[in-house]
Amino acid sequence: MSSRGRAFISGGAGFLGSHLCDRLIAEDFEVLCLDNLLTGTRENIRHLLDHPRFQFVEGDVTVPIDIAGPLRHVLHFGSPASPKDYLRYPIHTLKVGALGTHHTLGLAKAKGAAYLLASSSEVYGDPQVSPQPESYWGHVNPVGVRSVYDEAKRFGEALATAYRNTHRLDVRIARIFNTYGPRMRADDGRAIPTFIEQALRGQPLTVYGDGSQTRSFCFVSDMIEGLFRLLTRPAAPGGTDLAAPVNLGNPEEMSMRALAELITSLTRSGSPIVFEPLPPDDPRVRRPDITRATRLLGWTPGVALTDGLATTIEFFRQRLGAGAR
Ligand code: UDP
Question: pLDDT exceeding 70 applies to what percent of the chain?
Answer without folding.
Answer: 98
